[in-house]
């Protein structure tokens, strides 16, 4: 698809016949909103490097400790603590690319990471799932596949940001094989594999290679898989994440490094302190990736929010979350790195709270120039639930943001002086040629919003937005057809999954 930001504002038929905006690459032409002065950015930068020099960070894996030892970091036999010279960290981080292409099995679905590009990702890693018909339930493979179908059909979503819901009815030893195969067979968009140890990561890399039908050398040059590496805040990186990032770096695949710094719980109860800790953890982890393979594609992730000081529960879509998202963008740009943020909310229902907290999150992420917005569609209950209806509502929010970011065109045609002359004082523009020529494309047409008058809406049963979202997602699934897949690729994929299952997958409890 073209990256043209002047795509006509018209409802286009999607892959299942629903009226929605066309699939398109998105760029943000607006200047980033900056909540920190340049001197404040530098103070946070300096504080984070002081943290790494004086306090250090724990790496819970011998291989990481050895990589750091050989690089000249300060390590102590028998300890997991590593302390760093700031110059060594910054030199390593500077080797990371500022932008790259994330390749899909369908080249028309490739996306650009970096610069002014924005990529919207699905909800990921939720343990539960819900809709208003079946209620809240534990994640399962049937709902997992239906969420993939829905994500494939919605043009507002570019990539899958993890398992939309965890399919816990599949055995943990081989769950990743079925889950990743479903990404390939039910969608042609780029996808994610979890950095939960070396074996799962290697399986994910191979499935991404098979899906594209390319050699390992080509895969090394063309990132086709991404993962998220979360630090275990404060100042610790766990062994499975370390194994995952090492294999992804070796294979030249994308790692989004994202400290989970909740102010007041896993970070200081101030935004400045939480951001300094976030930055320290992100820089150290990105530096480790570059030690493994200089030039490996990474993203600087920000996920700093606050807790409810009364209950200790995480809060999302708050003013603090929004400011941290904007500040995270400033820090990422400070190092010339692509930036990952998230669309979040803490609501327990698909209600007005879920929507306004998500809008706050989306606004901060886009205006902070995030290059990848995780959980853009479907996140509910602080990330503990994926919601079918919320997927639809979020698609509307994303489409609205995409349209908002398109520049206003000012030229002889759009100024409409001939139309104003034709209508004159006291007339109307409904029937003039200028209006008729733009009847279908003049303004944004919503996916979900209902603009009927009260009487027509009431006569139709007075459905609210959540009910309409439910009806729409059910229609999408009823009409869904998977994208074409080369039979040779499908055969190779099935053979790989069958062999790995016969071998037992990965060791699990």
From TrEMBL:
GO terms for biological process: methylation. Its EC number is 2.1.1.-. The keyword Methyltransferase applies. Keywords: Methyltransferase, Transferase. InterPro entries: MttB-like_sf (IPR038601), MTTB_MeTrfase (IPR010426). One of its GO terms (molecular function) is trimethylamine methyltransferase activity. Belongs to the trimethylamine methyltransferase family. This is Methyltransferase. The lineage of its organism: Bacteria, Pseudomonadati, Pseudomonadota, Alphaproteobacteria, Rhodospirillales.
